[in-house]
Design goal:
Blueprint lengths: L9 E4 L3 H13 L3 E7 L6 H5 L2 E6 L10 H11 L3 E3 L9 H10 L2 E2 L4 H8 L1 H10 L7 E2 L6 H11 L3 E5 L8 E4 L5 H16 L4 E5 L5 E9 L5 E13 L2 E7 L6 H17 L4 E9 L5 E7 L6 H8 L3 H9 L16 E8 L1 E2 L5 E2 L2 E2 L2 E4 L11 E5 L6 E2 L6 E9 L2 H14 E4 L5 H9 L1 H4 L7 H4 L1 H4 L7 H16 L21 E7 L16 E7 L7 E5 L2 E9 L4 E6 L2 E10 L2 E5 L5 E8 L13 E3 L4 E6 L6 E2 L4 E7 L2 E6 L4 E6 L6 E2 L4 E7 L2
Parallel strand pairs: 1-2, 1-4, 2-3, 4-5
Antiparallel strand pairs: 6-9, 7-8, 7-9, 10-11, 10-13, 11-12, 12-15, 13-14, 15-22, 16-17, 18-21, 19-23, 20-22, 24-25, 24-31, 25-26, 26-27, 27-28, 28-29, 29-30, 30-31, 32-39, 33-35, 33-38, 34-37, 35-36, 37-39
Helix pairs in contact: 4-5, 12-13
């Protein structure tokens, strides 16, 4: 097999976000022109701003824009692009798209359509790998998709089992079934997700290993019959089967096991005539046995950790191989240097079951110099900047933070400092959750498996202990905001309820839960702290009453978000800022506390009635209504299913009662905060 030279001087990136920006950076370094494509939702996105040219594809929906093969091909024709790089997701593993490019005489920066087809059908791929001698997890990969047969096969394999979309990847259409009585509901949900994401409802079933690690091998092949592996990555820390933290090399790998897995991965790639960058994913059991899961026929989100430990630019390799060149290095020329981590920053709320979040990024910055970090050791791959909007239409990943160190401990310390230096405002993210992961004793001790987050949920998602300093800092910022202080001591210039006969007292309730201030309205709730603040003069210190403690307090705003808080003569430096109807306080360790506050002087604290409505927690689309109007339900019973950012979210009954009516039907689009249904709790 020999590939002819296919030089091109312009490359179109058929994707969005950080991967589009990443490809543009490498392409420009190679002297290539870049073309971006965009939907209406991305008209002002970073990848559009940075490209040499940009072409509109259509409306916000991916199906009407980024997934329109004919529109992408026409954009390449209009701009004279000789090649298309698909990034990952969207059209990156779409065989008909590759065939359309072949017919148009445009180079696809990726494998041939035949290789995509060979690995795109997970069931067929399993059979082919079995014939090639690659070890497989026990499971069912057949064509018969009858419900009863699938249930029988799951019973035969033994629970827990993993349901997976045959045509999918990235955690879409994938669920763990712990017992037979939950099989049908899981099957229905997986089919809906698979149909929405891939246009295909076929499922495969595998035995779910209880303590496996997810270890994948980066492979690369050219059109001249050469193939290498660029070592492995450990991607065990996942939520909803999507990776959160990745590292390379995988901890505890012996040289013999590394070679065995690497050679198996290259053998799998050559079996299907692969060309370009690919990832062969394995489950690594505690006894050292490994099993083929799937092959992703594209560049992976976590490829930067491989770049960090090998010193190679994999996107440049892709472009050169697409031009018909040979691989830059042979297997014996590739070496591992140090250790690398990648943390995925998502617009989501871990405390609300990882619900995707939307909004506008009022600030997005990484202060390397202020944190004392080496720019050569820390890299932020991002598709957003301050002022950008985070849409409901696409995957919620905002950026990837990648670090390198001489060894795992050093790299992990650098990751924590970098996470603390990452300032994101305006949209809820998983930044603080990533810090909890990276500082968890089990993660530091390499006690890893794919259920890491589930196993340590109690500590990873437990409410952070809130210090007096955090409460005081939040209260001081809130009090100053409410009193609207100015430099003058004149009562005519003040707006804080000044009175002649006594200092004014302002009462604030602070709570650490919820996105609105509902909890802060109830100062008798367990998670609400009431702070009373008063001062004799505008320039004098505050007297704070927090619980049973009375403190003399001052706050001084320093550079940026730094504040100096003095409590009873003890001065501490913290990071604190107003954000999203509350205050975010960060200690010098990087731990984050978010407190929502409300003035409660004039609030009625009577008993609140039970909510009679359910509101949408995010923008999305109604997928299914699971009960009938008037039907009696029990607390926790699923009522309706929403889809947002490619994931399904089930809305459950808040109490025993009945559904009076639904305000939306399946297929309707809803906005965050929209009332979804009327619910009548039992008396």
């Amino acid at each position: 097999m020999t590939t002819a030279m296919k030089k091109f001087d312009t490359v179109l990136i058929a994707n969005r976000g950080e991967i589009a920006c990443r490809v543009m950076r490498t392409a420009r370094a190679m002297g290539l022109r870049t073309v971006a494509v965009y939907s209406d939702a991305d008209a002002n996105a970073r990848h559009v701003r940075e490209a040499d040219e940009a072409v509109r594809l259509g409306p916000a929906s991916a199906r009407e824009s980024y997934l329109r093969v004919e529109a992408v091909v026409e954009a390449a024709r209009r701009t004279g692009a000789g090649a298309i790089h698909p990034g990952y997701g969207f059209l990156s593993e779409n065989g008909p798209f590759v065939e359309a490019l072949d017919q148009a005489g445009i180079t696809f920066v990726g494998p041939p359509a035949s290789a995509i087809a060979a690995m795109g059908d997970k069931s067929a791929a399993k059979a082919r790998m079995h014939d090639a001698g690659v070890p497989l997890v026990p499971g069912y990969h057949g064509d018969d998709q009858d419900d009863a047969l699938l249930r029988a096969e799951a019973d035969k394999i033994g629970y827990p089992v993993l349901l997976k979309a045959s045509a999918g990847g990235g955690g879409k259409g994938m669920r763990v079934v712990e017992a037979g009585d939950g099989f049908q509901a899981a099957l229905d949900g997986c089919r809906r997700e698979s149909q929405a994401a891939f246009g295909d409802q076929r499922m495969l079933i595998e035995k779910y290993l209880t303590q496996p690690r997810h270890v994948e091998v980066q492979v690369f092949c050219d059109g001249h019959g050469n193939g290498v592996y660029l070592f492995e990555r450990d991607c065990s820390v996942q939520r909803r089967h999507q990776k959160v933290l990745e590292e390379a090399p995988a901890p505890g790998m012996s040289a013999a096991l590394r070679r065995e897995m690497g050679e198996a991965a290259v053998r799998a790639a050559k079996e299907i005539g692969y060309v370009g960058a690919g990832t062969v994913e394995f489950l690594l059991d505690a006894d050292g046995s490994f099993y083929f899961m799937e092959m992703n026929t594209r560049l992976q989100v976590e490829h930067p950790v491989t770049e960090m430990i090998t010193g190679q630019d994999l996107v440049e390799w892709q472009l050169r191989v697409a031009m018909g060149e040979r691989l830059p290095l042979a297997q014996d020329e590739l070496t591992i240097s140090g250790h690398s981590f990648e943390a995925r920053l998502y617009a989501e709320d871990p405390e609300q079951d990882f619900l995707p979040a939307t909004g506008t990024l009022t600030r997005f910055a990484l202060d390397l110099e202020g944190a004392g970090l080496d720019a050569h050791k820390v890299r932020l791959d991002s598709g957003v900047e301050s002022g950008d909007a985070v849409s409901m239409h696409y995957d919620p990943m905002l950026a990837k933070l990648i670090v390198h160190g001489a060894d795992r401990d050093q790299a992990l310390a650098t990751l924590n400092r970098a996470l603390a230096a990452l300032d994101v405002q305006g949209v809820v993210t998983n930044r603080a959750f990533l810090q909890r992961l990276a500082t968890h004793p089990a993660f530091k001790g390499c006690d890893l498996d794919t259920r890491f987050i589930e196993k340590h949920e109690d500590t990873l998602l437990a409410p952070r202990e809130i210090t007096t300093e955090a409460y005081a800092s939040a209260a001081l910022i809130g009090l100053k905001q409410l009193s609207r202080e100015c430099e003058s001591d004149s009562p005519w210039d003040r707006h804080d309820g000044f009175r002649l006969n006594a200092p004014n007292t302002i009462r604030i309730s602070l709570c650490a839960t919820g996105h609105d201030l509902a909890r802060a309205k109830a100062p008798d709730a367990e998670d609400v702290v009431v702070v009373e603040g008063r001062r004799e003069t505008a320039a004098g210190p505050w007297q704070l009453v927090i619980g049973e403690r009375t403190l003399t307090a001052r706050i001084q705003h320093l550079e940026g978000d730094a504040v100096a808080v003095t409590l009873d003569g003890h001065r501490r430096r913290l990071q604190a800022r107003l954000a999203d109807n509350g205050v975010v306080v960060m200690a010098d360790t990087g731990g984050e506390t978010r407190l929502f506050w409300r003035r409660i002087d004039a609030i009625d604290h009577g008993q609140h009635e039970a909510e009679s409505t359910l509101t949408a927690p995010m923008h999305g689309t109604v997928v299914a209504l699971l009960v009938e109007p008037g039907q009696k339900v029990e607390k926790g019973m699923p009522l309706m299913v929403m889809e947002a950012m490619k994931m399904e979210h089930t809305m459950a009954a808040p109490a025993d009662g009945s559904v009076e009516s639904f305000h939306f039907a399946a297929g309707d689009t809803v906005g965050q905060g929209d009332v979804l249904l009327e619910f009548a709790p039992e008396e």
